[in-house]
Design a protein that fits this description.
mainly beta, 5-stranded antiparallel sheet, Jelly Rolls, ConA-like_dom_sf, CNTP2 protein, 2 helices, elongated, Laminin_G, 17 strands
């Protein structure tokens, strides 16, 4: 295809921070890739470059954050020549692509949820998307409906299920005055704790525990957006260890 205008829209939800959502490329060096990187949305687009390097078409735009929260997020990409509107959850970002070309030439297949292995270094370092998508619309074509009715020709539909499985994890919400207290394990030499957390607050206490027999305590907190671990031991000379990340 050689297009001057494109409109691509879809909704997704995932708990993974990396994954290719959409990809297409052509023989002239054109490509468009929409992917998650570190839970942010990245759009890579090239409407054409030349071998001399005087025309450099690669354009990369990043938007959003914490998109691996397993909530639905909506994306709309509207392109008219070099002018792009990228909308994520109703927040629109406008930009112009680099280079001098207006048309997007896509000679190979367009893929959703991953990209085919092409032998290029960029293809084998990218992860496929893991999660749910719905309402995939590409230039007026309802891709979700066509895939479900097997009307896409040619197509290679992998291990797809037309349902969205919810994760089995049970989150706990703390409102800054609540806490969860669990019994300790006396006469244990090992203290081990692991958890996932998410917060908008830059400060807060995550974990606190006293050691038995008055031997000290351990504290894990957020201080100015950094996680800190403080270990106090009463019976040794260097009685305090502080780790921050």
């Amino acid at each position: 295809m050689k297009t001057l205008k494109d409109v691509i829209s879809l909704k997704f939800k995932t708990s993974e921070s990396e994954g290719v959502i959409f990809h297409g490329e052509g023989q002239q060096g054109d490509y468009i890739t929409l992917e998650l990187k570190k839970a942010k949305l990245v759009l890579n687009l090239n409407l054409g470059s030349n071998q001399l390097g005087s025309i450099y078409g690669h354009t990369s735009v990043m938007t959003g954050s914490l998109l691996d929260d397993h909530h639905w997020h909506s994306i709309i990409i509207e392109r008219h020549g070099r002018n792009i509107n990228l909308t994520l959850d109703r927040h629109m970002q406008h930009f112009r692509t680099n280079g001098e070309f207006d048309y997007l030439d896509l000679d190979y297949e367009i893929t959703f949820g991953g990209m085919p292995f092409s032998g290029k270094p960029s293809s084998n370092t990218r992860k496929n998307f893991k999660g749910c998508m719905e309402s995939i619309n590409y230039n007026g074509n309802n891709i979700t409906d066509l895939a479900k009715r097997k009307k896409l020709e040619p197509s290679n539909v992998g291990n797809l299920s037309f349902s969205c499985v919810e994760p089995h994890t049970v989150p706990v919400f703390f409102n800054a005055t609540s806490y969860l207290e669990v019994p300790g394990r006396p006469r244990q030499d090992l203290f081990s704790v692991s958890f996932l957390f998410r917060t908008w607050n830059p400060n807060g206490l995550l974990v606190f525990s006293n050691f038995a027999d008055g031997l000290g305590n351990v504290e894990i907190d957020i201080n100015e957006g950094k996680v800190s671990v403080h270990i106090n031991v009463t019976l040794v000379k260097k009685n305090r260890i502080d780790i921050s990340s």
